[in-house]
């Protein structure tokens, strides 16, 4: 989970601690905050890492099939059951079963899950023998389960079972300084995914990104970075290209968002932008002085050629534009 904010650093420390606590865990967070990613980090940092991580969206399981999906069925359990079929709990044996959108379970589904969590015993549909599971259950929801319980939509006893350990993932608007870092990361990831040249955010676009409310959180930022990369024909993505990628930014002028040197912008964000601007200006002047020769530029700056090349790629600076014609 990328980020340098205090909020995300606290979450990472919590994930590491909980990886060694082999009990049920509840993750709450808004849509797009990375709940499955957090569950995977816990799984792969735990002693269960060599066993399966099995994700399931509880909202996609029909009420009539909840027991069959979780516990499987034996041969002859119903008309079309020509062979035994293991359930999700069997697939997660020794590993982790991740129940996403657990709040979407119906009353029947909640009772079914609660009965299993009480003693980790289950019986396949049509089966006679009781089996025991050693899968760890991690549940996630984009709702506040306490409020769901108070409203009568979720069982209090099931909440207690799931909530042995608890993590709240902060929304992106609470992660000061992380928007710029993530925006750069996702733009580089888009270049790799699309096998295209490196590109960088213009200052006006980055100011708009930082000022955005991000209701869809990290997932929304990832999608916008991909669309912006595809929309931009040049190496610099400005507010115009950003507006094409996301209509929410349409109509913004380059100076219509807060500048990074204003006091209402967080220190981390301002620092990130100052470093980025310094690197861009310095590299441009350096390559101009070296006439586009990376080896000469490396000698002038006292930097390793390989490291300098990485910095040039990071900022989308093409050396050919500085070579004599």
UniProtKB/TrEMBL annotation:
Domain of life, per UniProt, equals Bacteria
Alphabetic keyword roster:
ATP-binding, Nucleotide-binding, Transcription, Transcription regulation
Sigma-54 factor interaction domain residues = 1-230
Question: Which Pfam families does the record associate with it?
Answer: AAA_lid_14 (PF25601), HTH_8 (PF02954), Sigma54_activat (PF00158)
Q: Tell me the protein's name.
A: Sigma 54-interacting transcriptional regulator
User: What organism is this sequence from?
Assistant: Rhodanobacter ginsengisoli
């Amino acid at each position: 989970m990328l980020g340098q904010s205090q909020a995300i650093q606290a979450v990472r420390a919590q994930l590491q601690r909980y990886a060694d606590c082999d009990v049920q865990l509840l993750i709450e967070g808004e849509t797009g905050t990375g709940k499955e990613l957090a569950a995977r980090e816990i799984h792969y940092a735990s002693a269960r890492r060599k066993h399966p991580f099995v994700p399931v969206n509880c909202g996609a399981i029909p009420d009539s099939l909840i027991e069959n999906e979780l516990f499987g069925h034996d041969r002859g359990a119903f008309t079309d059951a020509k062979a035994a079929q293991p359930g999700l709990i069997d697939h997660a044996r020794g590993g982790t079963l991740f129940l996403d959108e657990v709040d979407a379970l119906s009353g029947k589904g909640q009772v079914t899950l609660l009965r299993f969590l009480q003693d980790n015993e289950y019986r396949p549909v049509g089966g006679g023998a009781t089996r025991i599971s050693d899968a760890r259950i991690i549940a996630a929801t984009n709702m506040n389960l306490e409020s769901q319980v108070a409203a009568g939509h979720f069982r209090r006893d099931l909440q207690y079972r799931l909530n042995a350990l608890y993590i709240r993932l902060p929304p992106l608007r609470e992660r000061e300084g992380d928007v710029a870092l993530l925006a750069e990361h996702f733009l580089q990831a888009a270049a790799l995914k699309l096998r295209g040249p490196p590109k960088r955010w213009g200052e006006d676009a980055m100011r708009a990104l930082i000022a955005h409310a991000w209701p869809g959180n990290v997932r929304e930022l990832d999608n916008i970075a991909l669309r912006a990369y595809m929309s931009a024909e040049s190496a610099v993505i400005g507010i115009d290209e950003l507006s094409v990628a996301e209509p929410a930014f349409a109509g913004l002028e380059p100076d219509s968002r807060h500048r990074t040197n204003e006091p209402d912008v967080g220190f981390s964000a301002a620092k990130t932008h100052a470093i980025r601007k310094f690197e861009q200006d310095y590299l441009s002047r350096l390559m101009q002085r070296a006439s586009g020769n990376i080896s000469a530029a490396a000698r002038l700056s006292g930097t390793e050629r390989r490291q300098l090349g990485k910095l040039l790629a990071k900022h989308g600076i093409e050396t050919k534009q500085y070579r004599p014609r």
